Amino acid sequence: MATTTRILCFVLVMVLMGCCCSAKIYKVGDSEGWTAKGGTYYAWASRKEFQVGDSLIFEYDGNVNDVTRVSSALEYQFCNSASPQAVYETGHDVVTLAEPGYHFFISSNHSQCVAGQKLVVFVVQYHQIPPPPPRKILPFAKDFKVGDSQEWRVPDESDFYSKWSEEKQFHVGDNLLFYYNYEVDDILEVSGDLEFKSCDTSSPVAVHNSGQDLVRLTKPGIHYFITSKTPHCEDGLKLRVVVRPLTRGGPKKMQLSPLDHLIKWLQSFRPQPHH
Q: DSSP state, 149?
């Protein structure tokens, strides 16, 4: 009994170590630290993938600054620190990312925040222990980073995003990940081809403007995305994706070629070994 208990304790420790060892620690801004510099934190966060259990370290002068955690993209965008989720002010704050989704951080010093001292990170679940899917289809869902290394910005060639989407197959349940500078662009989902072609922003289906947006493709058909910045949209910052329905059941049986049929037929005459 004692041996069994020791074995179970050892297994539990190893499991916990496996989960914890995968966590990473990120110093916000690297050598820049936590300060007011326009665009610094957008570029810094877009090059990383944050998981549940990872930690952010904010280093700054605690006498003149702080880290304020806010709950929404709207508070983040307008530097509204009136109803913070949490406030850190030690000058060396360690914040563990305990749940998936968007996490918003600003400085409560409004002028500092407006000057660029704000950070949004998108946190995913552990890769090793994915969350149970709400539907059977989700284990097969894929994440597509829109534009790949180009991300979501005005392309050099106006048909860049058309070519990007044509090279891929999208299905219901897949996700589009948009990374961009929220101070320069945004994302509008529009309902039809006419709005898409004319860059009509008057009646969007949805608006995204956090700088790191995840859009789940929930139904088959054609989905349209543009930016509200009219010159940018006309210059090619628009995306149309064709979403296919899920194929029910397992994979289809592979079709055999005539030669395969012949080989299979000949194998049926192979003598069986005697026992």
A: G
Structure tokens at 201: 């922003």
SS3 readout for 185-202 = CCEEEECCHHHHHHCCCC
Q: Which domains are present in the chain? A: 22-124 (2.60.40.420), 143-244 (2.60.40.420)
What is the separation of C-alpha 126 from the centre of its chain, rounded to a whole number of angstroms? 13
The whole-model pTM stands at 0.48
Q: Residues, the chain, total?
A: 275
Q: What is the pLDDT along the chain (275 residues), one digit of tens a residue?
A: 555 545 444 444 444 444 444 678 999 988 889 988 766 787 788 788 898 889 999 999 888 889 999 998 888 888 899 999 999 999 999 999 988 888 999 999 998 898 889 999 988 876 444 444 444 434 467 889 999 989 999 999 999 999 999 999 999 988 898 988 888 899 999 999 999 999 999 989 888 887 878 888 989 999 999 999 989 999 999 999 999 997 654 444 555 556 565 556 655 655 555 55
Question: Is residue 272 packed enough to be buried (19+ CB in 10 Å), middle (13-18) or exposed (0-12)?
Answer: exposed
129 phi and psi angles, rounded to 5 deg? -130, 80
